[in-house]
Design brief:
Oligomer: single chain
Radius of gyration: 24 Å
Order of helices and strands: HEEEEHEEEEH
Strand content: 25-35%
Number of helices: 3
CATH topology of the largest domain: Rossmann fold
Distance between the termini: 92 Å
Largest sheet: 8 strands, mixed
Structural class: alpha/beta
Length: about 200
């Protein structure tokens, strides 16, 4: 009886070992890479802050509301990458990147999140419809933005679309090209903001 129990335990251990081995062979460990948008130069110290810009929530197209980098594989297919992820979800990554880029271009402006009781300020509303790579070697950013002035006058919706060729193949080149697209968007918004009273 003791012998049968020992054989049974040994048989179960061998079976468990073989099963685990098969799992590891069919699903090897994932080599996940995380990416952050390129940093930009900090604003020059000493500028007098005379303006406030409230950066409202960034509205993303549903397929972008993830921490995965998205690739357009043909004219109709969007594919989230399995192993290539943003450091945060894309909304947070864009918010950080846009805030830094606007601050570097608008030395007299402080960029803040919406806060209760905040005095009248210029407000930026942003909708992102595309922020992905294309298999033909481009990074694409498109959507709309609207600046409302401090006196609550709503500005017109401004559509935008930027497309930057990748310097080389690979996800690092894609992330840098997407960062360049965000640079172009920031320049466009900063130019418009400087025309507001």
């Amino acid at each position: 009886m003791m012998m049968n129990t020992t054989h049974l335990r040994f048989g179960l251990l061998v079976l468990l070992g073989v099963s685990l081995s098969a799992c590891f062979k069919s699903n090897p460990p994932v080599n996940t890479q995380r990416y952050s948008l390129p940093e930009v130069a900090a604003p020059q110290p000493g500028a007098t802050l005379t303006r406030t810009l409230v950066l409202n929530r960034i509205q993303l197209a549903d397929y972008l509301d993830t921490d995965r980098i998205v690739i357009q594989t043909d004219d109709i297919t969007m594919q989230p990458a399995r192993d290539h992820l943003w450091v945060d979800n894309l909304s947070q990554e864009l918010r950080r990147g846009l805030r830094a880029r606007l601050a570097s271009r608008l030395g007299n402006t402080i960029i803040v999140d919406p806060q209760p009781g905040l005095a009248a300020a210029n407000t930026l509303h942003l909708t992102i419809e595309q922020f992905h790579g294309q298999m033909r070697g481009y990074a694409v950013l498109s959507g709309q933005w609207q600046l409302n002035s401090a006196d609550h006058v709503a500005g017109a919706n401004q559509s935008f679309k930027f497309s930057t060729p990748l310097a080389e193949n690979g996800y690092p080149a894609l992330v840098r090209a997407l960062g360049h697209d965000l640079d172009l968007l920031s320049e466009q918004i900063a130019s418009q903001l400087q025309t507001l009273p």
